[in-house]
Design goal:
The chain is an alpha/beta fold. Helix content is 45%, strand content 19%. The chain has helices spanning 3-11, 21-25, 50-59, 68-77, 104-108, 111-125, 130-144; strands spanning 28-29, 38-45, 63-66, 85-86, 92-99, 145-149. The protein has a 4-stranded parallel beta sheet, sandwiched between helices. Strands 1-4 form a two-stranded parallel sheet. Helix 6 packs across helix 7 (130-144). It is globular.
Length: 153
């Protein structure tokens, strides 16, 4: 990053410090004894219909979350205390995450990568070896994430 970019990044109303996804993942709790829910994960840029999908799934009775990962990220970028998010018990949930538009991190983050870090760390904390925790996290996400990519013209 050029010196100019570093200066402007810190004067942005949307970012006061650097944040990486591991820090974001550290604010998300997961209890391995509950099992991982089936997650219908809608990801798209701002103004692509993710809010309409959130409302549709919520109205149909499916527990729904609006940008839980991005909300944590934004508080951290502003150097504010971020609330934690607990991944719900096994079942079915809908999660909306939008990509962008204000900072580089929120324009490039991958919510599945954040969830992978959460699961991997939770399984390691429960006593699994690093390689076993990696394997369980990958398999769990592969089986339980139903990805809905949304776009716009």
């Amino acid at each position: 990053m050029s010196d100019f970019a570093q200066v402007t990044a810190w004067t942005s109303p949307y970012q006061r410090r650097s944040v990486d996804i591991a820090e974001v993942a550290g604010k998300i709790d997961y209890d391995v004894s509950y099992g991982f829910p089936e997650v219908i994960l809608a990801v798209g840029p701002c103004r692509s219909g993710t809010t309409a999908a959130l409302r549709l799934f919520g109205e149909s009775g499916i527990e729904s979350y609006s940008q839980p990962i991005k909300a944590i990220m934004r508080y951290l970028l502003l150097d504010e205390p971020a609330q934690r998010w607990t991944i719900p018990k096994a079942g079915r949930v809908f999660v909306k995450e939008t990509i962008g538009p204000y900072t580089e991190l929120e324009s490039t983050f991958n919510p599945i990568q954040v969830l992978y870090l959460v699961l991997r760390d939770a399984y390691q904390s429960s006593g699994e070896s690093a390689s076993k925790a990696d394997s369980i996290a990958r398999e769990t996400l592969g089986n339980n994430i139903k990805l809905v990519l949304m776009g716009r013209e």
